[in-house]
Amino acid sequence: MRVKRSTSIYFFIITALFIIFFFAVMFAPKEYDWNESYSYSEKKPYGCYALYAIMKENELQKNLGISQTSLYDDVKGFNVSYNDISKNNYIIITDKAGMDMYDSEVILSAIYRGANVLIAARSFQDNTIPTRLGFDIEARYLSNDGLGRLYHTGEKRYYDYSRPLRDSFISEFRDSISEILAVNETKEPVAVSIRYGKGRLILNTTPHIFTTYHLRENYRLPFLLLAQLPYRNTIWNEYYKPGTVNERNVLTFIDSNRLLSISFYSSLVFIVLFILFNAKRRQRIIPTVKPMTNSTLKFAESIAALYLIRGANRTIAKKLRQYFYSNFRHSIGQEDTVNSAESIAAICSAKCGLSYEETYKNISFIDSCCETDSTETSDLVKLHKTIRKLHN
Q1: In this structure, which long-range contacts are made by residues 159-163, counting pairs with CB atoms below 8 Å and at least 24 apart in sequence?
Q2: What pairs with residue 92 in β-bridges?
Q3: Are 366 and 324 in contact (CB under 8 A)?
Q4: Which of 142, 149, 143 has the alpha carbon at shortest distance from 168?
Q5: Which helix (H) or strand (E) holds 148?
């Protein structure tokens, strides 16, 4: 009863703590996620929810769609053809352009056939596109904070932004096919338009200016760069972003939703506590069962005592004689062949180590005790000792 009461107290305390923890987390000030995602669906500071919403609501492009797959998968999976992708615009905004060699070849083929692709990224995973179009990107870490300035060559105007910790610029490009769209405060190109076949690549190395946080500071420059894309079907690609669908796991999905993560981790805590407090097996006390005593010996002692009290000495002598001969024949493996006293004496003499004469005398004494009409108690004691001597 005491164990059940203690368990109930523990359960009450844990439940109260959980309720306090739940309300404390629910009504705590919300912390902003400052990780860079560049996703159209995320409203955090470094997401692109505001940019996509403005483009969608104001119909800045003919048809603005979302793609969660790579261009290589679309073409090789026969979802679209090269003729289809060559008629579209593509927008890829990410920290690091994660196209591999096969994706890069498909993008270059699409641009050559007439597609217009805007890639805003600080670096490229694969060098196929930079090598083919003749440009190179150099990255650096900035030591000072404060405002950074970007200059748009078309409007001949500076735009101020909060300086990021990392910065990139276009260190090399081909003048014959490239047009500088924007430079940083040290006159290094950060946005260029590169002609390739019938299409163009609009390359930008400051993807942070497209995020919600920096749109609040200055929204004009990002839309000036987007204006380089012609008015036609436009695909916003989500595949080449950090933490894309192909890189996510179950825990990433759980952590993406605050209420879901609170419920999940609270359940884990409850399970651990349940295991700790209920790991001990509950059952009734197992009674100690005493081993059964050998009652056969006590029964034999009782019968012998009864014979002795009644004075049936002759009967006890016959039982002892019967026990002796039965045990003797069983030990030699012959039940009926050895009957004479001489042969029995010879075998017993060899087994117990006594002389033949002494052994024969003892056997004759055993037989004589059973033939007399009255047997004394002293004779029974002597008979018992004789039988023990022959057994040894």
Answers
A1: 159/218, 159/220, 159/221, 160/217, 160/218, 161/206, 161/208, 161/209, 161/214, 161/217, 161/218, 162/213, 162/214, 162/217
A2: 119
A3: yes
A4: 142
A5: strand 147-152
Q: Does residue 392 register a pLDDT over 70?
A: no
Where on the phi/psi map is residue 339: left (φ > 0), alpha (ψ -120 to 50), or beta? alpha
Give the pLDDT of residue 368. Answer: 76
Distance, CA of 390 to CA of 363 (rounded, Å): 9
Other C-beta atoms closer than 10 Å to the C-beta of 239 total 20
User: What is the per-residue pLDDT across 180-193, written as a single tens digit (0 to 9) for each?
Assistant: 999 998 899 999 99
Cβ(80)–Cβ(73) below 8 Å = no
H helix count then E strand count, the chain = 15, 13
> What average pLDDT does the segment 12-24 reach?
74
CA distance 218 to 232: 26
E strand residue ranges, 12-115: 64-67, 89-93, 96-97
Burial (CB count within 10 angstroms: exposed 0-12, middle 13-18, buried 19+), residue 84: middle
Contacts of range 357-364, beta carbons closer than 8 Å, 24 or more positions apart: 359/390, 362/386, 362/389, 362/390, 363/390
Chain center to CA of 12: 30
Q: Specify the pLDDT at position 91.
A: 95
By C-alpha distance, which of 298, 319, 338, 332 is closest to 384? 319
Identify any residues that bridge with 151 across adjacent strands, giving them in sequence order: 158, 183
Instruction: Say which residue, 243 or 127, is predicted with more confidence.
Output: 127
209-229 pLDDT tens trace: 999 999 988 889 999 999 999
- Sign of the CA dihedral running 255, 258, 262, 263: negative
Per-residue pLDDT for 2 more than 50?
no
